[in-house]
Amino acid sequence: MPRDNCQRLDTVHIDEVPISPDEYNNILKMQHAVLEMMALQNTTKDILARLCTLAESLLPNSVASIMLLDNKTGLMSIISAPSVPKLGHDALSHLKPGPGGGSCGNAVYKNEPQFIQDAFQDNRWSDLRQIAYDFNLCSCWSMPVRNKEKKAIGTFALSSFEHRSPALFHKKLLENAASLVNIVLKNEENEKRIQLFSSAMQNASEGMIITDANNKIIEVNQAFLKIYGYQEKDLLNQNPKIFSSGLYGTDFYTRMWQSISHDFKWSGEIVNKHADGSEIIQWLSISALYNEDNSSNNYLAIFSDLTELKNTQQQIKFMAYHDSLTGLHNKSYLEKLFSLKKTYTLILLNVNNFSYINTAYGYEIGDKLLILLANILKNNFNIDNTCRINSDEFALLYGKKISIKEEVAKIQSYFYTHEVQVDNITLNISFSYGGACGNKNLLRNSALALKQAKENGKNNLYIFNQDHDNIDHLQRELFIESNNLLHNALSENKLIPYFQGIMNNKTKKILKFEVLARIEKDGEIISPNKFIEPARLSGLLPEITKVMIDKSFKIMQMNTFIFSINITEDDLSRNYLVDYLKQKSLEYNINPNRVILEILEGVSATGKKNHTRQLNTLKEKGYALAIDDFGSEYSNFERILNLDINFLKIDSKYIKDIDTNPKSYEIAQAIVFFAKNAKIPCIAEFVHNKSVQKIVKKLKIDFSQGYYFSEPNPLPIA
């Protein structure tokens, strides 16, 4: 059986964790995004792909997929899974629903949700076990997509690369996503109907009238009478202009009759009038009926009622730009408005302690409170547009530059002097406020201001400062840029090792090297300070370590130098080092006694049993151990001795100014004293000039590393 590479998460009582306002808000955002795409008439393929991507963003380390059942074959296939490779699509093609057909096959077979925590063991995956192994699908949750008869016609699924069970939030997410799939598919059917009416309605037999050569009605069918609400006796010998809505001028009808005279037909969308005076949206086709002598004798008009379809489209468009609870405009509407690049003032209001209100009184009271607050804000202040953009967050939009402080003061004064009554509950409400003015990045800037206001304390206002607040945002953008840089480097094989020499202060020779990670991009060599932190947060440090081991071993097989490689706590947590180092040592014929594994001081101090066991195993196999950046944290000296460390590398912050800073000198001297007594050789990092090296030699530190002796190089140069 292939080895289980999945991380196992603690799933005890996870399904009892309540859904937070932020999680509800994330589901709301997903709904708004999908409905907006429908309103803008994006293709079904693009809408479903976007739905998958949005769902994946709410469950890290997962892929989303949508499968549909073929009524003819009874088999299922993927219709959307943008993050699944083609091999995955092919592997799941023509899936037969059944008790062994995985999460999706069971969801359709049983017509109920399937939450499988371990696809490698669960019997419901018995027919697809190899697929689980091949694509590392550790867990899979699937929700049936049902038609109007409540029959399962497909599934929406989230597959994770971790063994895990869904929380209430995840179940709600799957339920909403499956519902959205159904809405999108229904909308596609409606769109197809409209297109069908546009191209083929001349032969339809819905509403129909026939007129004579003088355009007087001589025949009507029952469908027409039902659509228009007339009796037959009221229409015979009448001119069809009695159905005119009055929305069109003389030019419109002139062009219509010119088309009929020239092309013998006319068709188009038109608004006519019902017998009760209401408007009817229709697709109208008029054909001229000719005698054998080619003289026009009659006209045939066929009417197809589009009112319901048009109303549905309008409803979808309304839902895309309005909040379903309060009826206010939503975030999508604001984003559309801001695309015009006009100058606006925007104030964001976050209800203080709203989560406590939900917890204490329940979500029903919370919803009633939000509706009440929406009406108060809309009706009591001179605001151009009041919006709800998050679960407990409102936006006040002004069409010009205003005094944000004055407007906020009015709102604060109102809620200071007015209590809010919801059912029989009296509440004192306050907000945190973030404001910004301008013609670009207004939502982002206001959100940054609101975040700062919350950090300053509740009921506070913070106004975005272009010069100061853009710096924090720039740092976040730089982090995202660095994260992308790292992912591209790993996928494009642009991560490379550099080697920095370590000089023996007794022999004055360089026979040891430290392996340093670098990224090569467009001829530029990028140092780790640009990508190590994103790598740590993204869980990619082990991927970097593997690349450094493989590439440095390949280079070092050409010489006999000793070299050191940095090992992180993440590497030890993944528990792969012993096997991987053995594999690469054999592949490149590298004797383990040539390799020093540098571990951060914090790893040795934490001393997790599994980590200590791995390090002792590596020592037994011949690898040397070094403590890197020693002195940067509170060290556990006893544990260092227990690990039988081979080298101590004194933290560079104590070496770089050791010649000018007495405090650095004293700390370095104490570390050397401890190391000498423990018979552990010391390495001084960041030896960058003659003066520093002089002090290093005075303290009798065994080795020196730094630019004074050796700059990092693609090859080890002694």
Plain-language structure description:
The chain is an alpha/beta fold. It folds into 4 domains: 7-190, Beta-Lactamase, CATH 3.30.450; 204-310, Beta-Lactamase; 338-464, Reverse transcriptase/Diguanylate cyclase domain (Alpha-Beta Plaits), CATH 3.30.70.270; 479-705, Alpha-Beta Barrel (TIM Barrel), CATH 3.20.20.450. The protein has 26 helices and 28 strands. The protein has an 8-stranded mixed beta barrel with strand order 20-21-23-24-25-26-27-28, surrounded by 4 helices. A 5-stranded antiparallel β-sheet has the order 3-2-6-5-4, with helices on both faces. The protein has a 5-stranded antiparallel β-sheet with strand order 9-8-12-11-10. A hairpin with a 5-residue loop joins strand 5 and strand 6. Helix 1 (21-39) runs antiparallel to helix 2 and helix 1 (21-39) runs parallel beside helix 6 (168-200). The radius of gyration is 36 Å and the shape is elongated. Mean pLDDT is 86; it is low at 197-205.
